[in-house]
Design brief:
Blueprint (H helix, E strand, L loop, with lengths): L1 E2 L6 E2 L5 H6 L2 H10 L8 H9 L4 H10 L7 H14 L12 H11 L7 H17 L3 H12 L6 H13 L3 H14 L4 H22 L13 H14 L26 E2 L8 E8 L9 E10 L2 E2 L6 E7 L7 H7 L3 H4 L3 E2 H12 L4 E3 L6 H12 L6 E4 H5 L3 H4 L9 H7 L10 H18 L8 H10 L1
Parallel strand pairs: 3-10, 4-9, 7-8, 9-10
Antiparallel strand pairs: 1-2, 4-5, 5-6, 5-7
Helix pairs in contact: 2-4, 2-5, 4-5, 6-7, 7-8, 7-9, 8-9, 9-10, 9-11, 10-11, 15-16
Length: 465
C-alpha cells in the first residue's frame, strides 16, 4: 500500500482522489523538483526519501503526478524534473541516457500553444544544452539564434546560451547575454551567483584568446578526433579560425623493467668533476607521475661555472598527468608552460648525452630522482650506466657540525641555509641542481677532502670534456 504524497493517507497511488482533484498539480510538481531532502520541511516527503536510494527518486514522482495533466503540461513538467535531477545548482541540462527521449518530447511540444513564451524559452535553453553536449553544434546554434532574438528569456536559458557562446569562442556575444541576465535577475541570488561564475569563465577564455593561448576544445572519451573536427568545421562555418590540435606522439615501447639495470650508488666523495641534476615532477610516484623539468650543471675540477655550455635545462611535457595547483604553487610551472614542451623520452636522450659518463649528483636522488630516471631511461631506451651520489646521504656525516636535528629529513633548503648558500629559485630544477653542487663542494671542504685542483688541472678537465 502506497501513501498520498499530499496528505499522507494510505492510498493505492501517489495521490488520493481528494488531493488529486483539489490540488494544484503543476505547483506540486514544482515543489517536488525544488525540494531539498534533509531540510525537514515536509515530514511526508522526508519519510519517503528515507526509503529511496537517491533523492532523485523524489523528483521521479513528478512523472506520476504529471500523468493527470494534459499535453503539453505533462511533458513540460517531466522535462524540468529530468533536467533538475541531472544538473548542479539551478542550471538545466538533460543526462545523456535521457536525451533521445527529450528530443522526441521537445519536437512535440516546443511550439505548442499550451506553453507560455517563457516556458518555451526555458525548453529551448534545455535543448540548447542537450544538443551542445551531444556535439551537434549546428542544431545548438539554431536554437541559440532563436533565443538571442527573444528579449526576455529565463536565466537558466541565459546560462546555457552564454556557455555555448563561450565554448564556441564568441566572447562578446556571451558577455552581452551575461550582462543582460545580471541586470534582469539582480534580485535572484542563485541566478546572480551562477551568471557571475559564467562571467569569470568568459573573461579567462577571452584572455587566453588575446594571449594566443589554446582556447576551449572538446575532449570526449569516445570519437575525440571526429568530434574535434566537427567543432573546428563549425567554428570555420561561422567565421572563426580554428585548427585541430596536434596529435600527441605515441610513447615508444619501454625496455621491460626486469631487463633494466638498477641505479648504482657510490658513497665515496673522492671526485670534483660531476653533473649535478634535479627533476621537477607532477608528484611523488615514479610509476604514475611525470617529469616536468630537468635541470643540470656540469662541474669541472670543483668549479661551478654557470655558463650555457655547462648547463642543461628543459621543460618536459607530462605524458598523462595534469600539473596540480599544489605543484604549480611549489614550482611555478603551469600547464601552459609545458604544453609545447618535448616528450620525456626526447628530452632524456639529450640529457644523457649532456651527462656523458659523469657521476650524477643529486639531493635525495637515490630515494626519488633515480626512480624517475629509470622510467625515463626505459622509455628513451637508454640504459643508465652512470653512478649516482646522494648529497642528502652525504650530509648525514655532518649532523653535529651543522646542528641537524634529523639528517634523514633535512631539506636542500635547510642545508643550503646552514651553509650560507643562496638558492635563487628553489623548486626549479636548474637552481636546485646548482645549489646541490655547491652544497656538495662545501661539505667536501668540511670533510677535509683533497685540495682543489690547479688551474692547469681545471683547464685539462675542460679540454677533455
Amino acid at each position: 500500500m502506497a501513501i498520498c504524497i499530499k496528505c499522507g493517507k494510505e492510498n493505492d497511488f501517489c495521490l488520493c482522489d481528494s488531493c488529486r482533484n483539489g490540488a494544484d498539480l503543476e505547483a506540486l510538481c514544482q515543489e517536488l523538483i525544488a525540494y531539498k531532502p534533509g531540510s525537514g520541511e515536509n515530514p511526508i516527503w522526508e519519510n519517503l526519501c528515507s526509503e529511496f536510494n537517491s533523492s532523485v527518486n523524489l523528483r521521479n514522482l513528478v512523472f506520476a503526478v504529471s500523468d493527470y495533466l494534459p499535453t503539453p503540461r505533462k511533458e513540460y513538467q517531466r522535462v524540468l524534473a529530468i533536467a533538475a535531477a541531472f544538473s548542479s545548482a539551478s542550471t538545466s541540462n538533460v543526462p545523456k541516457d535521457s536525451r533521445q527521449w527529450f528530443y522526441e518530447i521537445y519536437e512535440t511540444i516546443k511550439d505548442n500553444d499550451g506553453l507560455t513564451e517563457d516556458e518555451k524559452n526555458r525548453l529551448h535553453g534545455i535543448a540548447l544544452g542537450a544538443f551542445y553536449m551531444d556535439y551537434d553544434y549546428s542544431a545548438a546554434d539554431k536554437i541559440a539564434s532563436r533565443l538571442s532574438e527573444s528579449e526576455d528569456i529565463p536565466w537558466q536559458a541565459c546560462y546555457n546560451l552564454a556557455e555555448f557562446y563561450i565554448n564556441t569562442r564568441r566572447y562578446d556575444a556571451a558577455g552581452e547575454v551575461i550582462a543582460d541576465a545580471l541586470r534582469r535577475f539582480e534580485n535572484d541570488t542563485s541566478a546572480v551567483q551562477t551568471m557571475q561564475s559564467c562571467a569569470e569563465r568568459n573573461k579567462k577564455q577571452r584572455e587566453k584568446a588575446e594571449a594566443g593561448k589554446p582556447e576551449y576544445m572538446p575532449n570526449p572519451r569516445e570519437n575525440r578526433d571526429e568530434v574535434r573536427q566537427k567543432y573546428v568545421d563549425f567554428l570555420e562555418s561561422i567565421g572563426i579560425e580554428a585548427a585541430m590540435p596536434k596529435p600527441r606522439k605515441k610513447a615508444p615501447t619501454p625496455i621491460p623493467l626486469d631487463q633494466y639495470p638498477n641505479p648504482v650508488e657510490t658513497r665515496e666523495a673522492d671526485f670534483d668533476s660531476f653533473v649535478a641534476f634535479d627533476l621537477e615532477t607532477t608528484g611523488l610516484s615514479s610509476s604514475k607521475d611525470s617529469i616536468i623539468e630537468i635541470g643540470a650543471i656540469r662541474v669541472c675540477g670543483g668549479q661551478v661555472i654557470e655558463k650555457a655550455e655547462f648547463i642543461f635545462q628543459e621543460l618536459v611535457k607530462p605524458y598523462k598527468q595534469k600539473i596540480s595547483d599544489e605543484i604549480q604553487q611549489l614550482t611555478g610551472i603551469t600547464a601552459d608552460d609545458v604544453k609545447d614542451a618535448r616528450e620525456m623520452w626526447e628530452v632524456f636522450e639529450d640529457f644523457m648525452k649532456f651527462a656523458g659518463d659523469d657521476i650524477l649528483l643529486g639531493f635525495n636522488c637515490m630515494a626519488f630522482d633515480s626512480k624517475f630516471m629509470v622510467r625515463a631511461g626505459r622509455y628513451a631506451r637508454i640504459k643508465i650506466q652512470n653512478k649516482y651520489f646522494d648529497v642528502k646521504r652525504y650530509a648525514t656525516q655532518f649532523k653535529e657540525q651543522l646542528d641537524i636535528i634529523d639528517a634523514r629529513t633535512v631539506s636542500l633548503e635547510e642545508l643550503s641555509e646552514k651553509l650560507d648558500i643562496e638558492n635563487p629559485q628553489a623548486h626549479r630544477a636548474l637552481a636546485d641542481a646548482v645549489t646541490t653542487a655547491r652544497v656538495y663542494l662545501k661539505l667536501k671542504e668540511m670533510d677535509g677532502g683533497s685540495e682543489k685542483n690547479s688551474v692547469n688541472d681545471l683547464l685539462s678537465d675542460l679540454d677533455n670534456w
